[in-house]
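Sequence in, structure out. First:
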Amino acid sequence: MSESETVSRSLRQPIVLTSIFAAGWFYLWFDWLSLYQISAEIQRVGFASTVLPVGWWLHRSGKESPLVRYAIYSFCIFPIWHLFTFAFYELGWMTLKAMAARVGLGITFVTGLGWTTYWVERKSRVLQVARLEVSGALAKVGPLQSMHTSVAGVEIGSRIWNPFDMDAWFYGRQRQKLRQSLSVLFGYLIIFILIVLLLLQASGCQELYEMPAGGGEQKQLQQVVKVQKVIKKKFIINPLSSVIFNPPPLDEIKLQLLEITKHAYQVGFGKGTGAGFSGGTNRGKVRFIRIEYSGGDWDQGIDADLNMLIQYNLRTQHKIAERPETRKVAQLKNFPVGKSPPVVYMTGQKNISLGKSETDVLRGFLIEKHGLLFADNGGSAHWGNQFKALMGRVLPHVSYIRVPLDHPIHRVPYPIPFLPYVAPHGGTDALAWVVDGRIAAYYHPGDIGDAWGDDHAGVPTPIWEACYQLGTNIIFYAHAEYNKWLDSRKKSD
């Protein structure tokens, strides 16, 4: 038995076990991207466990041939890449997560290109050597000359269509090697882009959004009433009494009563047990989805999204997702009607560049899927104008209006006494695009997202607390209106 056969047999069992582990890892990865069926705890354990097989193979690579060693390094790239991406995501380091995703994609591209070049070169050399043996012509062609001339050095009578063969007719009779290399490069680039686009498309294919099951009422969370009464006490003293009195001064005595009225109800909408929505499911969760768009800084202050999501849970007791998410506008079309997000969030301070197809998808999300677009001006009047122009294309027949403070979106579950903002980048009024009596798009003019950050942008406590309350109101309003729509669909059916 040869040494190579012995090595191959020794690796047979580890390869089988690793293949089984890789199948489980791939399912975890796909679930993390789109399905959201596996709990966060299982995902953490699953992704962390990839360290064991990766470590074993990297340790084993030192005993193998260079080719096998490079193959091991190449396969280990994927679990390491996704482990770092997942870890940064769990820690809330969205900037590092995005960087890890881009770096991993670049390394994957270069690695794949290297193996493709090696494979094509090997196939081409085998064909060339075979032709040399058949012809008996051992042409002496140097490495530089081989960039221009086939190493076979023979004329081919019939047309050859095999792209691995340098003597294929479409490579010509000069610079065959160069032309073959360029063809491999462009072909690989096209296939790689198509695969990436397919994965991006699949990552949101028929993704389902489900609200938490439950019920409740649309009322204000609490109301505090302070009542101040002034009571004048009168003392009557009998001068003939043998008891010596030391009466207090006949000053006014002020009594301050604090009456706290709390509505004993569960935050939600519809009939059900616990805080939630009658149209939800037991596995449903409120999710915070930020929109990615071209032309600007869609990821501005993205670390604050998790804070708002957690605050929503604390204030409503609704079940929430373990982490916030991002989606491209085009991915919104992958949510089916009746299982789509009730609200999505976008912000920035530069440009907003959406094509016609993206505009159509956004229009379908707002109207057909009954969604709400929550837009937050992140720092410039320019962005506000950009957003108004965008809505003019998305909803051309709907004009925006000023949202009064007595609107339900500003009253439930928190009564908002004033519109809170960090800075009035786009005015001091909230704007809305109303469709069939429902707010389909809500525009906040003053960087509410900055107040959700860890440092609250340095604004006073009443401001950032009101910003959390307003964020809670908007998310709740969208889900409550979405639930009403689901109920109406059930009745009509």
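Second:
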Amino acid sequence: MFCRVVVDLIPYKTTSFFVKMQVLSKVNLLYFLYLCGQVMNLAKALRQNNTNDPHLLGRGDIKKLLAQYSLPAIIGMVVTSLYHIVDSIFIGHGIGAIALSGMAVTFPIMNIIIAFSTLIGVGGATLTSIRLGEKDEENARSILGHVAVVNTVNGTLLGVISLIFLEPILRLFGASETLLPYASDFLSVYMMGIPIGFVFIGLNNIMRVTGYPQKAMLSSFLTVAVNIILAPIFIFVLGWGMKGVALATVLSQLVGLIWVLIHFFNRDSLIHFERKRFKLSSKTVLNMMAIGVSPFLMNLTSSLVVSIINFGLMKYGGDLAIGAYGIINRVLFLFGMIVIGLTMGMQPIVGYNYGAKQIGRSFRALKYTIIVSTLIMTFGLLISQLFPHLIMGMFTSDTELLGIAVRGMRITTILFPVIAVQMVISNFFQSVGKAKIAIFLSLTRQLIFLIPFLLLLPRYFGLDGVFMSMPAADLIAFFVTVLTFAYQYKHMRKV
């Protein structure tokens, strides 16, 4: 078993530490779940007689296509979420409760990094699927080169600037003197690997929309497997603390990048690297940015929002409240990633058929995605309300931290299902190239609704008010999203 191999790599005294902290069994459970998913889906990928023809998006059964493209993406997203969760378990039990709070301080900065990554990565993937729908394979190949070059440049610049101003940036985002060393240790290593992460994420998205969803899924497995092996060794055996966590992440992304590059250097792939395609076109770059600006702004505003949340948590609950939200965020991230995986599967179907003027097929893909995502988030709501102590107890044994996390989780997840609808519809507009609408829907929750609630509700409800702000904003954003879609639906049907 994979988990046994990892454990065998750890000296006996370290293993005893795991047992003492009552974390080994929990980690092994996650390893087991991860392994089962990996084996089953590897087998499925090997059995599948897949022609890797993206033009099937225009004539295949919508439900089957959605399953074919979504399941690998969902599995990849879940596995990715699990390794973040496992990292948090290792941090909580191997470094300490305060280290979890230090990690939480980095979340808004990480959101900024993700924002710049998605600006080109998501925009490039969406534009690629639209060009394939238009039977324009030459321009689709050109987009591949653009994504590789621009993400390399963006990642390098962002990494260098972040390292130069690391401490002021952390203080700006609410790091206290207690949390600063932990956050700094993590980011000082992680920032050096930003170019690797940027290129990997961007190219992996293009791999998925060009007819290779299983390969894209396997790249996620590779990164997760490497991270899960290295993180406990770096933390518990070598004692590298937060720097070890970051180094494990960077090295895992490097392995994933090598896998993706091998695919795109293979000329048998429909979309592959060509020397002449690395010459940048300002028009193509601007088109990618226009489409990717929605998730870019969403993540950028999310950074602002998380910063305001952290300041509120610090004011009304202290360092441990920030750590509690960090734990909650991992769980929210898990279910959010499942929905994102669904929208990733929906994206090439919607984009291709919209480009091919088959609007009805695009809407059917949207309908099925909304139904499934709502069911998933409803399930998340139920387990969050019924078993919060069990879930939060995986991350920490600190009684005070656990109490804050349990209460916060129950409040923040109360309107989970409406989040699904808002996320899917926003992604739909992004997939058909309606960037302005997608931007509007993304910003309504983050800026127009959430920030005022964050500034107002804590004054009356204290720490609970910080948590209450999130479902309150979700509810209003849901109604705005539905009304916007209803209006646009009438016009899009006529296209």
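Remark: Residues 1-29, 45-51 have pLDDT under 50 and may be disordered.
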